[in-house]
Model the fold of this input.
Amino acid sequence: MCGICGVIHFDDQRLDERALSAMNGLLRHRGPDGAGAFIAGGVGLAMRRLKIIDIAGSDQPLQNEDGAIQLVFNGEIYNYRDLRRQLGARGHRFHTDGDGETIAHLYEDLGAAAVGELRGMFALALWDGRKKKLLLARDRLGQKPLYYYHDRRSFVFASEIKALLAHPAVPRISRFSPDDPAALRDYLSFGYIPAPATAFAGIKLLEPGTTLQVDLAGAAQSRRYWIPPPQAPPANAQAADYRAALRAQLDEAVRLRLVSDVPLGAFLSGGLDSSLIVALMRRHSNAEIKTFSMGFAGDASFDETTYAEAVARHLGTQHQSFRVEPLSLDLLPKLVWQHDQPFADSSAIPTFLVSQQTREHVTVALTGDGGDELFAGYERFYAAQLLQRLAFVPPPIMRGLSRLLERLPEGTAYADRARRARRFSRAAGLPLRDAYFDMVRVFSAELLDEIVPGVRANAPSLAAWINPRQAHRVAALLEANLTSYLPDDLLIKADRCSMAASLEVRAPFLDHQLAEYAASIPFNLKLRRGQTKHILKEAARDLLPADIIDRKKHGFGIPLGAWLRRDMRPVRDLLLSRRARQRGLLQMRAVERLIVQHESGQRDNNRQLWALLTLEEWHRQFVDAEVLREP
Done:
């Protein structure tokens, strides 16, 4: 695992080695074990390395036999041994025992099409000295990030935005403006900035499954080399028809991710996905398996550690549970620094904390990320299905119910009934696509219009991610989730929080061959009679206890609502400060109303408040500050 960065100048300007070094220095947390660089004229590549495979060798940049190809990459190639055998048979000579050099030799044979042969998680940059071209690529599902800035004189790229901003060619300009509220509208709705845009003008995120080639004339050409296959519609099939093949796919995905020359463990929440990954790890290892979970004080409804400990006992792992006491806003500056952008998903807090604790024991951890996206694991998919069935109810009745529910106070428990019922009734009566978005968005359309007036006429939606050829409307929502929320929220969070601790996380569910097979399973075997992830549960029957397999879905969240209510002064001090008011981005009366509602217990506004807190802290660190500096 590494951090990578680089620069190409299109004119005769020579590379500023100090600027490249400054960029690379801001990526040290991604790779504390070493650094390397390649510089030739106006071209420079650099990297920081976290040593996982071939510890004594594989220092980057990596080259082909004559050095014409120079490569820096971040991630792991899980099929590298097979590729090395094939390349060796064709006469290629290797100088390392790692996975990265495989890419350089494969490119010699196939050019940019080599990326399609890689099975893994990666972001790479390859300089072709013969063709005078730079190739950038990201893995298919977006596990590893790669940002870039392109103007008429230069092309600059890096694993994180903060490294881009260290280069003098890259301006530090916010896209959030009172005159153009589109970026703010998107952020407050989705809770993140949808790719390829970012919070900074001119800076883009290379999209998953995409290559980008840049030549010395400044011409850039992108190509999508992989897209998730469409979900199979419901069919007359049984789980038994797919169970064995699914288990084989899962088994191989886990086995491939156990290759490591450093200590390896797993996150274990006690839910189905992480428990199944650990159970399959046990099948491939006689060594002691270390597992880690995170619990929270302040609200027992968020704490899953008892389930994790039960799974650990069942599987015989060496388990450690960490417990977090109520926090104020102590972690806010650190999390904003790591994410480089406003980020409304407060589950970054536990992800960051469990990564820190886990890194004290292992260097690599497997996770259950992706199981919900492949197998319709979120309850909101069932809610969408239920909304379809209730379409016969006249909209005025649902609106009346919604108005009635508005009078109920909201608790801060994980599954507060008033909050869930209000969200469901509000969505009822809308077209299914809009109803689904209404259930998952951070700021509702009405609240968004109050806090950022004038945006309703151009409201965001999931339309850009909906496959118009998908006949099954709930399956279309699952596809949209896989191409929006997964890469732009969950995987950004996983990458930033783990890399902040110099921890590599691997997600077997995000193996692209497994994803392709999962898409071929009829949708009614994923969401069946109100049961989410039906086929995955059936595949786990002989590996895990029934009470773990069949227990209700529980997300990885924290009792932020309860924690904030303990002391709202830090929230007021930040959101209602003079600096926040002078930005002119938000209607401050609406902000104050959110605070009062949450403090009084009328509403649980923790998601909205966290979105605004990260927005204001981001402005202070990345817009207001004269010099970027880690808090």
